[in-house]
Amino acid sequence: EQQLRMAIRPGADLGLQLYLQPKVDLRCESVVGAEVLLRWHHPEKGMISPADFIPLAEESRLIIELDRWVFQRSCELLRDWQRAGRPVPSISINLSARQLQEPDLVDWCLDQIKIFGLQPAMLELEITETAFINLSDQVLEQLHALKLAGFHLALDDFGTGYSSLTYLRRLPLDVVKIDRSFVADLCQDPRAATLLKGVMRLLDEMGFGVVAEGIETADQSNLLQRIRCQLGQGFLYHRPMPVGSFVELLDKAP
Ligand code: G
Ligand code: G
Ligand code: MN
Ligand code: NA
């Protein structure tokens, strides 16, 4: 924890790095955006997965600082791309639930957007379903304020929380990300396929964008397309990659 704190100090270069996982249009495989995923190349321990250090950070306010560090580094990226005259793809950032309990969250985000000369709509904020176990008025208010400010909101890991349908009804969402456990079962389990087909129709009628996560096989992708899911992420297309590789990928595109 102490080392993580050091790593996000201004000017520190202690191995924390943004990776980007491209989000693609399943029909033509073109890159339409990316999700920012944190990586930590620890000086002695090697690569540490966020699955290991995010839960540690979530035990204290460190997660607030860590997510804000990611937010700022992501803004920096967008600003650099914008300055270089590149078309700027939409970027998604994971926000921990604790962040939604910070009274200054919306003002802080808007300040950063202003400092970096960006528009809120360039960023999509992903909030995991499991974060909403107690959906307080304060959290709802924050989400509405973020949405009103122009940020796009995505519900992450859809289908794994305690009250998925309630979230769809009450949260001001733009995008729903189908959890990869549904995608994993799609081709083996007819009930998973039927379920997802119905869910897709529901999400479509409610006007949400949908992104399928964890697509690993062409069969999964084909089935997803048949049930009208158009966007996805997964190892079949691209693994999370360093920023330089992502830029190369964009440059290679026709
Ligand atoms: O990239 P990977 O699959 O290893 O990520 C593991 C978990 O860590 C995922 O649930 C992902 O959402 C989470 N995660 C990755 N980067 C960040 C981040 O910057 N902030 C937060 N809050 N979670 C992240
Ligand atoms: O919780 P969240 O959806 O933000 O986490 C994304 C995580 O999923 C990251 O850790 C990323 O590395 C991982 N991931 C991305 N694509 C795939 C995939 O196709 N298969 C698997 N198993 N994991 C994936
Ligand atoms: Mn995510
Ligand atoms: Na997810």
UniProtKB/TrEMBL annotation:
Name of the protein described by the UniProt record: EAL domain-containing protein
Shown segment, full-protein numbering: 428 to 681 of 686
Signal peptide residues on this chain, from the entry's feature table: none
Source organism superkingdom: Bacteria
Domain EAL positions: 1-254
